[in-house]
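Revision sheet: structure tokens.
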Amino acid sequence: MTLLMLKAIRLPITVLFFVILSGCSTLHKNNIDAPQVIFSTEDGMPIIAFNTELRLTIDLVAVDRLAKSAKLTQEEWLIEYFSATNRDAFSPDSEFFKLADIVSDNDLKVTKIYIEELARYITQAYFACKQPLYYEYFQQRYAFYKEDFFCDSAVPFDLLSRYSSNNIIYIDPNRVRDIHIVFASKDNNMMSKFGHISLRFVICPEAKSSKAECDANLYQHIVLGYMAHIDDIKINSIKGVLGGYKAYLYANSFMDVYQKYTISEFRDLYSLPLNLDQKEREEMLRALAEIHWGYVGDYKFINRNCSTLMQIALTAISHKFAKEPSLNHLYWRPDHFFQTLKETNISDAAQLEDLQLAESNGYYFPSTEPIYKRAFEVVQEAMVTTSYTSLSDYLIASPIERVNTVKNNHEYMNKLAKNDYLLEAQLLLEELSLIKSESLMNAEMGYFFDEYGVDDIKVHMMKNLDAKAYDVFSDCVLKPMLAVIQPKKRSHGIPTVESFKASAIDDSCQMEVKANSLKQVNAELEALDPEKWASVKLAVYYWLITIENITNYKALRG
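Predicted:
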């Protein structure tokens, strides 16, 4: 090692001298008769050592002194020390590689993650609460801390909402009554051909609420699930199979999930309770939060999908899942994973044996298709002559075609004005069309941003919009889109409350004062690539016409 190399590492020469002297020895995993000194001062005082029980010991006062002399923090000094030394004792093993694969950004080097997280484990007082999975790993390996940490704070999640691009919620572990595996039945889309699997947190109104009150508190229930960053309505099949999309552990409100699957996609939802005690539920909550805030990985339809990623995560988090023999096999099909879980003692499958009872108890949410089919039949009978032969035909038709069909049928219009039941059926169909139109609009927008490139779009908009219009673009278009395709990630675990104080939620994008700026934004996005923007523009236009249709129908109410 040359002096130039020593200088590049920025560690004091005396530190590097001991790094070099101690770098060739290895630490045996048997108990030792005397402490093994890894790094010491020039006069022989140990700074980093393993005691006779193989517990890592570090003199943080001495580390602080050395760090200050090098104008570094303790964490920075340890990172540079671990980077400079070449010891198996401070290198990732196979278990850490598995853990990093499910906890951190997969684009980062595992050795870099290991060194940085080890330094934080040693120096950060709340590491156990911010990064519980990494803390458990390091504690098992190094046993640096003699006492367990108690985490009493609520756990934050970045909720992906239909109505907000920045919705940080906090979950009190004491209010989590149950955790369920949620299975959405199959769909015709390629990525949903075998269903979708996720987790549902049953959150109580208060810590002392009854089970019935907790189960009924649906609007506060949260669902966590792995998904590709592009809606499967517009997903590229080749990229879905071979790779090209990013997977994240998204958080959604249960009611949004309910609407997406049972209403928009006509799929059944099964909610399977897991047999977990309060301690296990809290551990799972905090561990999943660490993954939610840190994980970014490749999404692949066959081997890196919602099912395999969830199985790997739950196995890493829960000893019950890790010890279950039937889960030694990795299930790439969500339906097979769900069926296997039903047959284990981990879950309470009895709750789904009688689906009628399960629906009453909040464990089964059937597709709403029969309701909308009945509404279509009511409208069809009253309209007498129509070109729609099925509900799907009606939903495929453009909102302009739909409303013109009604306006041109004067007899039907009179019936709508006089028959409340018929009017409600017509409204129900148009509101369903709105939900599907909204899904398509968001999918088209996400596809445009992903295909064209967020950075290129930002450069173009910054160049061609004034400051006011760019702020509107940032708040009303870019931020909501990035919440889906590039969720906020932090490589240092669960964020603290303080880190969100500067984040303000802008809910004024519907205000008239921003209308002119939004028109400018739309014009510039279209100018960027008229051909690619055309499908987005059409989807937005149909969405607006559908809203207008609903408003006009509601005006017929007496």
